[in-house]
Design brief:
single chain; alpha/beta; Rossmann fold; seven-stranded mixed β-sheet; five-stranded mixed β-sheet; disordered N terminus; binds nicotinamide-adenine-dinucleotide
């Protein structure tokens, strides 16, 4: 079973089918050959690996993992590795395809890649996790490399795991090779600003979108689903910009205060283990968070949370998709008809891969930037990408998601044409 839940029999939530539909949708606006669309609808290379890991009790378990490389016309593949018990090949393929379009929309010289291992890492000891991470990376080593495919963290993987994987690859090649993976610890070639990049990139775009809508940030109301790495930092940055964070949720529940939550208190409750300890009077039914009358709604947790079942009731003016795939295609259609400005995931959360790109560039140069330099370059990239998507949406009379796909598909098509793959 995929980690994408199934909600109804008529609303397809297979991520591979969703991304193929999105490509077809954008293709309607593009005069490019059918052969180019057919190439883009499938990954170029998919590797399935099985590898043994010695467990602490002396037994050996065999794990299954995948690496999908969607398209490398513009540059090497790039994308995270997730460890999750419900990882499927279709999901990894779809995620690698979204990575191509995410890199394309912000203009990075990468194609898309994604990896996954079918495992619940929470059941492993630290030693087992290290052996599994190293064994998986050794198994996919023939197809990754600084000029081939550069992985990064994703669900349930982190900078320590990236450090082990970089070390494994460096040992295999007998040379320190930090450019093989991003999201590493700072001391072995990580970039300053990487931890905050995804949320920061999204916030830079929200500033632009609010300005376009003629709305002030001061006092603008915000609801955020998910209070993890991405959601929590977005809350902090938006609050510092004068917005009022009225609702947040995590897997334990949701909090709501129309007067604005005290973010410091929410963070203290979260760090102590339960955000609901903030106060009983502020509890909210978690699903209701998505339906609050706010200026900005930020889904920052799970896939497929805005569906045909609740999209009609979404009242936010702007939905900024910090999570990957939070809106189903049917819900997307409903939101657009209602006039909600949906900032699509491949644009809204591209700040993470953008600073991953900066990390790789710094690794190749062996020269490192300050956090201010990284944030400034991130700002330039995100604002330019948003402006380009807005302009393309106006030119083609589409929503921002279709416009983002149009830009990416056009770029990849031009590269495939320049290389002689298609006419
Ligand atoms: P995370 O694991 O740090 O945080 C996820 C948060 O979601 C946690 O607070 C968790 O409690 C909460 N959550 C889980 N189930 C929930 C539910 N039913 N209702 C409300 N909240 C729930 O993960 P993250 O890195 O913050 O990633 C969040 C989303 O952003 C994912 O979709 C991820 O793919 C996307 N994203 C993250 C990055 C990044 O750099 N961190 C980059 C691109 C995209």
């Amino acid at each position: 079973m995929s980690i994408f839940p199934i909600r109804s029999s008529f609303e397809t939530l297979n991520p591979y089918e969703i991304v193929q539909k999105q490509i077809e949708q954008a293709a309607l606006h593009l005069g490019i050959p059918r052969s180019a669309i057919e190439i883009l609808k499938r990954p170029k290379r998919v590797l399935t690996v099985h590898f043994p890991v010695k467990m602490d009790d002396g037994t050996v378990r065999v794990f299954e993992g995948y690496r999908s490389q969607h398209n490398d016309a513009i540059g090497p593949a790039k994308g995270g590795i997730r460890f999750h018990p419900n990882v499927t090949l279709d999901e990894v393929k779809a995620l690698s395809m979204w990575m191509t379009f995410k890199c394309g929309v912000v203009g990075l010289p990468y194609g898309g890649g994604k990896g996954g291992v079918v495992v619940d890492p929470r059941e492993l000891s630290e030693g087992e996790l290290e052996r599994l991470s190293r064994a998986y990376f050794e198994a996919i080593a023939p197809i990754v490399g600084p000029d081939k495919d550069i992985p990064a963290p994703d669900v349930y993987t982190n900078s320590q795991i990236m450090g082990w994987m970089m070390d494994t690859y460096s040992r295999l090649h007998g040379a320190f090779t930090p450019g093989v993976i991003t999201g590493k610890p700072l001391i072995i070639g990580g970039s300053l600003g990487r931890n905050t990049a995804t949320a920061r990139g999204c916030v830079y775009i929200i500033f632009e979108a609010m300005n376009d809508c003629g709305k002030s940030l001061k006092g603008a109301t915000v609801a955020i689903q998910g209070f993890g790495n991405a959601g929590r930092i977005a809350a902090d940055l938006l609050s510092s910009a004068g917005c009022k964070i009225v609702a947040v949720s995590d897997s334990q529940g949701a909090l709501y205060d129309p007067a604005g939550l005290d973010l410091k208190k929410v963070e203290e409750a979260k760090d102590a283990g339960n955000i609901l300890a903030y106060g009983d009077a502020f509890r909210l039914e978690p699903e209701k968070l998505l339906e609050l009358d706010v200026d900005i709604l930020i889904p920052a947790a799970l896939e497929n949370v805005i569906t045909s079942a609740n999209a009609e009731r979404v009242k936010a003016g702007i939905v900024a998709e910090l999570a990957n795939g939070p809106t189903t295609p049917e819900a997307d259609r409903i939101l657009n008809e209602k006039g909600v400005l949906v900032i699509p995931d491949i644009l809204a959360n591209a700040g993470g891969v953008t600073v991953s790109y900066f990390e790789w560039v710094q690794n190749l140069m062996h020269y490192y930037w300050t956090e201010e330099e990284v944030n400034q370059k991130l700002n330039q990239t995100m604002v330019a990408a948003y402006r380009n998507v807005r302009r393309t949406a106006q030119e083609h009379g589409t929503d921002l998601r279709t416009a983002a796909f149009i830009i990416s598909i056009q770029r990849v098509y031009q590269a495939m044409k320049a290389r002689g793959w298609v006419s």
